[in-house]
Structure formats: C-alpha cells, structure tokens
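Protein modeling request. Please complete all fields; requests missing the sequence field cannot be processed.
Requester role: graduate student
Desired output: 3D structure, token encoding
Chains: 1
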Amino acid sequence: MADEENHPPSSPLDLEVNLSGLFRPEFSVDNRQEAEKIAYSSDFSLISCSEEAVYGDEDKDAPITKILDARPHQDSPLTEDDAASFFHKKGFCLFPQNTKVKRWNEDYLKGMMFGSDITKVYSPELESIIRNYLLPEYHVISVDCPPAVLRRGPSSRNNFYGTGVHQDYGLSLEDYKNNLKAYDFSGQAAKEVQKKFDSDEVCGVMVINFWRPIGGYTKENPLRSKPLAVCDPAFVKNGDTVHTALDAKSVGGLKGKQTDQMALKYSPQQQWYYYPNMTDDEVLVFKQFEVWKDDSMDKREALPVRGVFHTAFVDPNTPEGSPPRQSTECRVQVFIGKRKEEDAAEEKWTPPAPLWPKDGSEWGMLALDMGSIGMIFAVVWSECPAIPSYLAFVYSFAIVGMLEGLIKFQYSLGREGNTKRYPCAQSISSILGMTEVALGIWGMTLVFPNVAYLGNPSPETCEFGPMLAMFIPSVIIAIVAVVVFGYGVHACVKGAKE
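Delivered output (498 residues):
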C-alpha cells in the first residue's frame, strides 16, 4: 500500500469542488447537550441558527475542497484482504463483491414478515465480509442486518441524494439510541441496543454502511453521476463537529421526533476521498458509528470521531446526459466482543445455507406437524354428542398446529441463526405455539372428565375416533406442562441454594 502520509499518490481524477452543508470554521456552539442540537426543518433549512452559519453554494468565500481519488491509495488490483487493511486504517474502503441479490427490497415490513433477497441473500453476504475480513480479529457477538435497504434514484422511495456533509448517528451511545427512537414508536430498538451493550460479552458496537451502485454499472459503463465522498475521521477533530437534528418525519421517521446526527465545520486539514467509476460489483464500506465500553462516556466532547462524514456531490467530470445515479445502502449494526486468540482469528465464518433445499430432518418435522390432519379425518365421519364442542377443538388445534409447522418449515427456524434472521416468522411461530398450548389445556378439560368413553365408545355418547383425536394432543400438552413446571421448580430450588 502506498505510503500516503509522506507521499500521497496523485491521480488525474483528483477533484476540487465546493461541498454543500459545511459550517463556517468560526461557527461556535456548545454541542454537548441534546437540547442544544442545531435543528433542520422538513425542507432541510436551518431553524435554530442563522443560514449564514453554513457556506452557501453561491457564497464567494465558500472553500474549495480537494477530493482525492481513493483508488491509488488502495493496492491494485482490488482484493478483499487489501480492502480490509484499508478499512482498518481509514474507516472506509472499496470492497470487491459480486452480490447475488436480484431484488433490492425497500419495504421493511415485507422483509420482516416474509423475508426478501436482503434477508435471504444479502445479509449472509455482508455478515461474511464483516466476520471474515473487516473484523476477523474480534469475537463478533451479533450482526444485525435490516430486512430492507435504503435506495436512491428514480423509481425508488428516496428519489433524492444526500448532498450535504453529514454523519448519521452522532458520537455517543445516547446519540445513537436517540436516533433509533426517532424511527421506532415503541422505543424497543433503543432498549435492545442498551441491553446488548451492557452484556458482559460485548465490548463495543459499530454501524457499518455498505453503499453500492445498482444501475447495471460496468467497467465500460461505470457510475458517473453523484458519487459519494468520504472524509477520513482521523483528520476530523471533535471540536469541528456540530451536533444536529433533522425533522424525523421528513426522512421517514415519527412525527414530532428529531434525529440525532452531526454536521461538520470546514477545516483545510480534513482529507476527503471518493471512488470514481464504481461498478455494481464494488461496494463502498464505511463506519457510520463506533463506540466502546472503555470510552469516556461522561463528556461528549472527549469522544473520538470514528464515524465517517460523507456526502453526495456533483463530479465536474460527469459527462453531459449521464443518467441519474441508482444506488443502495445497507446499515448493519455489529456488536463486538473481545479480541480473539491469534490462532482463532484464522478461522473462517461460513454463511448459513439457503432456505432451499430442505434437509431430511426438516422434511421429517414437517411430516410430524402435518400429522394433525389425521385428527380431522378421525372426526369427519364420527359422532361425539356427549362433548358438543369436540369439533371446534379438533379443527382449531389441527389448523394451528399445521400453520406453525409450515412457518417453521418455510423459514427453517430450526437452523442456527434463522430465528434472528426472520424475527417476524419466529414471533408468529411462538404465538401459534402458545395458542396450541392454550387449546391443549382446553382439550384437557374436555377429555379427562370423559376419558371413560375411550374404553366404552358409543354413537350415543362418543365414538372412538373423536375421543382419540382429542385425547392424544391433550396428553401431549399435559406432559409438556408437567415438564416445564418441574423444570421451573428445579431452577427455583437451585437458585435458592446458590
């Protein structure tokens, strides 16, 4: 890799441009308190300080920023290992990655409920990059990839570009949680982050952005419109950051809430980079947020700047008539543990197998779950007048059991990691399971007082088929209840002794 500190490699694609959204160097604000954030309105105009605090595009004194072509700063040809090394040094890199994603889902609810190429394909791809290349020296506790991506460009839900220097998640863990609350009405996401961060095995948390063009860009026809510029955080002082907030509703969040992020005051010491002529087989990876337990949490101004400031910008070399940029970004939350032993760092993480094809054990479990259909056949041509609600119980129990089995089978919830990869499917499966237990308890109240009909079936009381169809699931649920109760008593006794 080039020794760029002493002899920065130059490139004919280095640029000098006027970046939007930079605050003037003399701008001063005590940015330590949330209440003192500089707010933007829904049309992204400043509302808590003068517009003159930020350089305007037409201002004659607006500074010209040099943006370096980052490609010569990474070894060529581009490799995974060299990209990871650059990421460790700069907080960003260009990573070679030929994704198998066909459909870039933007619908978070759809992705949570039914899965998508993002959950099934992209999430394992990105987790492999994180575990095997970006953070192989750490025990990665969890990688939380969202079920949808943020797209930019025509026909997307966000047909605009972030042409203003910013950093999305602030400096501290509180900043990050406040930002999550601006999009989550339940507040559960922020609570979950704090819970994970407080766990003994976690040492830090990071948000990594995977930004890539998706417009069919190739070496012969690369991305030329509105590339992304990134600033090396090693050259950004805490005192040059400005604590800011957006109207959350204007960026897809909750009404009446504000996001928690940062803007930047101009400094000639800042070093900006971009990757010209990106293709669909390349992804720009950069840190958006990073905080560790051993950071000083008392004073916000004492925290180092690790998140990468970035902005879309107009490349003066863009050919006239170039189509608007089509791109996507995926922000991945990573909880990091301790450093690995040297030998363990060499072990490669293997992505989970795709949902299809299924293995033999999964087909076997499906067959067992579908066995509930036998209950229905057992009551179709039989009578049980002594228990009037027998049909309601049998149909309800059978249908709930089969639905639960189908969901487990479709999303392979028995495989390691899939309950986290498909949280909505897991939640529905759990609700159906609890419903099945409740129905089983109902079945006990129907069957156990009338168990004598098993030995003496009759069309006038209850035939054998309906009685057996109710008896078997009721006994199974009773056994499960006894085992769970026994385990609970054992745990309580053991806990009391300790």
